[in-house]
Amino acid sequence: MNLQFLRHSDAEIAKFVEQEVVRQEDGLEMIASENIASPEVLEALGTPLTDKYSEGYPGRRYYSGNIFIDRIELLAIERAKKLFAYDGHNAAHANVQSHSGSDANLAAYLALMNPGDTFLGMRLTAGGHLTHGHKVSATGRIFRAVQYGVRRSDERIDYDEVRYLAHTHKPKVIICGATAYPRIIDFASFAAIAREVQAVLVADLSHIAGLVVAGVHPHAFPYADVITTTTHKTLRGPRGAMILCKAQYAQAIDKSVMPGLQGGPLDHVIAAKAVAFGQAMQPAFRDYARQIVQNAQALARVFASAGLRLVTGGTDNHLVLVDVTPLGISGKIAEQALEQVGIFVNKNTVPFDTRKPMDPSGIRVGTPALTSRGMKEDALERVAEFIVRVLKHLHDAAVLESVSSEVRALAKRYPARPWFHL
Ligand SMILES: *Cc1c(COP(=O)(O)O)cnc(C)c1O
After folding, report:
1. What is the pLDDT of residue 239?
2. From the CB of 102, is ligand 1 less than 6 Å away?
3. pLDDT at 220
4. 129 labelled ligand-binding
């Protein structure tokens, strides 16, 4: 992984790749959906498997020459089913071919509904994902999406509202899971509501899959009929996704992914997914997931004692959502100021936000990547103090300067990829 060929023949791209690696190394990555893949995952990604075409599934390919690709995909599938085991039972079925979380969600919907059918999903501004039925997403255009949110009083999912909307609109599918929600999701309550209206329950675990398989967040099986998840967030694998489901949906899900939505799978990515699933089954991964949550709670404690307003008052998972408007600033301003000192977060809407999505009231701050660098609560407390200082002294160049050098020093003590040499 030393870019020897690229440097020689395409210096322009090589230079930017190097600069990006250095940016990641010198900064503190706190975007809640990002992580640091292992050297084994990167090795698998950088293999000639990318050259193979293998449309179809193991044992049923359209092209020849897939004997080893079949073994790799079967391993990925078996590991995925074991990784998502619950009460001692492996998951019944796994499809590891989805290219992204958005593709996986669309594939699940197309397997379970016809165009024009109604489904119930979480509103983007309440913490849901675009693919949970936002009107600019294909999911909101192909299907009739009804959206639930959170309660005004405590900013938590309002299960009474979900039940009311389910009984009123009779959706074919209910999807739960979120992209900016700092609390435990109650899959049992969602399942009870889905049963009452005979809807299929899809749990999108994209953000929290690593926490779920480590037992740090309650499992979505056996409550959910279908699980979709990205593989690159807390799960710490390659960029991609997968779908797990109960046996009765297996055929429909597979047909929906291929030939429904995709052609050839990304075999190098599937190999890397298998590697990541193997790593996530190790005891060390359980410690990692537990530390992610402890680190987020350390962040939340420092933020709260500095007087910042946290959505829901704290966190149960890997992220903290901060409403920065009481400080007289917006989420966009906060994001930009933090970027200047090498701390990367994203601006984010808060529930009932009155500001625009491109300049919302909050920031989302996550701990998966810093935890992968080996940071524990003491380091996260320091990082939280950096963030507070920046947000409270936005226009003080001396403060920004000093935080910036402290960020670099801390980043040096916790290398992101000690094994990666440019
Ligand atoms: C990230 C995310 C997705 C989409 O994943 P992509 O790989 O970016 O398409 C879908 N659902 C949720 C809840 C997510 O957090």
Report:
1. 98
2. yes
3. 98
4. yes
Whose structure tokens read 């399942």?
Answer: 191
Q: 335 and 275 in one domain?
A: no
DSSP assignments along 323-369, one per residue: E-GGGT--HHHHHHHHHHTTEE-EEE--TT--S-TTS-SEEEEE-HH
Write the residue with the smallest CA distance to atom 10 of ligand 1: 101
Domain shared by 237 and 300, yes or no: no
CA 122 remoteness from chain centre: 16
Look at 420 and 412; give whichever has higher pLDDT: 412
Helix axes 187-196 and 159-169, enclosed angle (nearest 10) = 20
Within 13 Å, how many C-alpha atoms sit on residue 139's CB side? Answer: 30
Task: Note whether residue 299 is domain-resident.
Answer: yes
Judgement on whether residues 70 and 207 belong to the same structural domain of the protein = yes
Averaged pLDDT score across all residues of the chain? 97
* Beta carbon of 371 within 6 Å of any ligand 1 atom: no
This prediction has a pTM of 0.97
* C-alpha of residue 232 to centroid of ligand 1, in Å: 10
| Cβ-based neighbours of 229, under 8 Å, separated by 6 or more | 101, 104, 204, 205, 206, 209, 235, 241, 242, 244
What separation, in Å, do the N-terminal and C-terminal C-alpha atoms of the chain show?
7
CATH number for 58: 3.40.640.10
Catalytic residue among 18, 43, 55, 353: 55
Q: Does the CB atom of residue 101 touch ligand 1 within 6 A?
A: yes
In-domain check, residue 28: no
Tens digits of residue pLDDT in 327-356? 999 999 999 999 999 999 999 999 999 999
Structural domain count of the chain: 2
Overall average pLDDT of the 140-168 stretch: 97
In a domain, 110, yes or no: yes
What pLDDT shows up at residue 422? 78
**Catalytic choice (25, 29, 204, 316):** 204
Check pLDDT > 70 for residue 1: no
Q: Are residues 243 and 298 located together in one domain of the fold?
A: no
Tokens 């529930």 found at: 351
Q: Is the pLDDT of residue 2 over 80?
A: no
CATH of the domain at 292: 3.90.1150.10
Instruction: Give me the domain span that covers residue 259.
Output: 45-280
